[in-house]
Specification:
This protein is mainly α. Helix content is 69%, strand content 1%. α14 (350-364) runs antiparallel to α19. The protein is globular, with a radius of gyration of 27 Å. Keywords: Membrane, Transmembrane, Transmembrane helix.
């Protein structure tokens, strides 16, 4: 194998697998000269998240006494790595690509496969640093020799990485043998992501926390048997069991490696005996010109066809359900009873309910929502539609209300599910939905206008649309401020509003919030009518 060949292939694979980091700004687009730097920064961000989640725990918890915390923390990061690995391996090996065509190029099978595996490792190695860190800290806390726990940490990290990468690879290869999977790759991708997201959610909130250490205000979690062996090898009296379990990891990794060498790789790069499956070409179906009697029905079907991008669907599901599910997780799984009947005993709370609905809209609607990308989804049809004998303004308004109603409907289903679970009274729920509906309309209209302003009809990956306007760093900061600081401020205001203020003051503030919301809605509607809709011909 030639190192220069592998290096060149790795650069191409990194560009392919990290195209989601592209920016509409030409100066910031990924190129070979900066791909390694951008990939490094991506791994730094992952490590930063790891430090935020587990930094204080690593140095303040005696891990030797908490095998559940040790194993669940490793399990949590490995599960996230599976999400990344699934997308990476799928993109590099199975995403409508006939890998046998690479054999016509001056590269060997070993070089091709090595470059792609190297790309997977380079892109996702940060996820596997956490086992090494935990094992090193555990070794220090148990007064184990440095010459023992450092090699053991490296060995454990390699074992976990090899087993995880090859396990995901073999699973994807088995799925790809299934004709139904090849035909419905997008649906299966979404289902697998939802399944893995549910597993992450269970790891965060569903773990058993019954074992309490005496004298400490910390409770241990349920032990994950997959990773407990890496803990036991440092504990007196359990070292033999630990080594046996690590031996099982070595056996499974070897079995996976043998499966890859004997079956997966030869099949992956072999010429197909059957006629090669034609790569699906994404063509925008021309809209029927017979629009006289059924144009809106045709447009409706067209809009639904546009929204079949897997990344967009995942973004919609995440943005609509991560707040009701993740943020409310402690309530769902907590042992404390939930009683909202107190809401009936306090007067003039409708302003607080409206404010909660407004806040939820800010959390669940963003520039990557349907309304924020749907004009750009027209691509070349954008100009074709303007040539049709129809009102282009009417078409754009239809498109906007389609996006708004769909966005609103999905969000309301999630919020109603939370309200039913909490047994919230009807009036508060209704007022929350009123505030949410009004602000969702305004935000959807704002992001719809933004999509037109930053119109991109030549995008190849949905992620290119997600990164228009501002840099990724600024976007992350905005999201953190909106979700974290905003939610804390709103809950602080509501506590002050409900338990501190007198009835008269509460009434005046509620009236002010109501009038302000109505004025904002009318004002922005008029602004859009004058500054935006008037640009288009009837």
């Amino acid at each position: 194998m030639c190192f220069d060949h592998i290096k060149a292939l790795v650069e191409v694979d990194l560009l392919q697998s990290n195209r989601q980091m592209s920016n509409s700004n030409q100066a910031n687009k990924l190129k070979k000269k900066n791909i390694y730097w951008r990939t490094f920064l991506q791994n730094v961000v992952i490590l930063f998240v790891f430090v935020i989640l587990y930094g204080s725990m690593i140095f303040n918890i005696p891990l030797a006494n908490f095998p559940g915390v040790f194993t669940q923390a490793i399990s949590f990061m490995v599960t996230f790595s599976i999400l990344q690995l699934f997308q990476l391996i799928f993109t590099l090996f199975y995403d409508d690509t006939d890998l046998s065509t690479y054999l016509a190029m001056p590269f060997s099978i070993g070089e091709l496969f090595t470059s792609k595996i190297a790309t997977v490792i380079i892109t996702s190695f940060a996820y596997f640093v956490s086992p090494f860190i935990f094992i090193v800290v555990l070794g220090q806390q148990t007064d184990t020799s440095l010459w023992f726990f450092i090699p053991i940490g490296l060995l454990s990290t390699v074992l976990i990485m090899v087993a995880t990468v090859l396990g995901v690879f073999i699973l994807l290869d088995l799925l790809n043998q299934w004709a139904f999977f090849r035909k419905h790759k997008k649906i299966f991708t979404i289902l697998l992501y939802i399944l893995l997201f549910g597993f992450v959610f269970y790891n965060v909130y569903g773990g058993s926390m019954d074992n309490t250490e005496s004298g400490l205000n910390i409770v241990d979690e349920k032990i994950n048997p997959l990773f407990v062996g890496f803990h036991q090898i440092f504990i007196s009296g359990e070292k033999l069991n630990g080594w046996l379990k690590i031996g099982l990891w070595i056996f499974v990794s070897g079995l996976f490696l043998l499966t890859m060498l004997k079956w997966v790789i030869p099949h992956l790069y072999s010429e197909n005996e059957e006629a090669p499956q034609k790569r699906k070409k994404k063509k925008e179906k021309a809209i029927s010109t017979h629009l006289a009697t059924s144009k809106w029905k045709v447009f409706l079907k067209y809009q639904f066809r546009q929204l079949q991008d897997t990344t967009l669907i995942l973004q919609i599901l995440f943005s609509k359900f991560y707040f009701p599910v993740i943020m409310m997780g402690p309530i769902f799984f907590g042992d404390l009873p939930i009683d909202l009947t107190i809401l009936k005993q306090i007067s003039y709370l409708w302003g607080a309910y409206l404010l909660i609905g407004i806040s939820l809209a800010f959390v669940m609607i963003s520039e990557t929502s349907i309304s924020g990308v749907i004009i750009s989804f027209d691509k070349e049809n954008y100009y074709y539609i303007q040539s049709l004998p129809i009102s282009f303004r009417g078409y754009l308004k239809f498109k906007f209300y389609f996006a708004f109603i769909l966005e609103w409907g999905i969000s309301v289903l999630a919020l109603l599910g939370v309200a039913l679970y909490l047994k919230a009274p009807f009036i508060p729920t209704f007022l929350v939905l009123i505030g949410f509906t009004v602000m969702t309309y305004l935000l959807s209209l704002y992001y719809y206008m933004r999509d037109y302003k930053l119109l991109n009809l030549s995008w190849n990956n949905f992620n290119e649309l997600m990164r228009r306007g501002v840099s990724q760093v600024v976007r992350i900061l905005i999201q953190l401020v909106t979700v974290v600081v905003g939610i804390l401020a709103i809950f602080g205001f509501i506590f002050w509003f409900v338990f501190v203020l007198e009835d008269t003051t509460r009434l005046l503030i509620s009236v002010g919030i109501t009038i302000g919301l109505i004025a904002l809605a009318i004002g922005f509607y008029k602004y859009a009518d004058i500054k935006f809709w008037s640009k288009f011909n009837e």
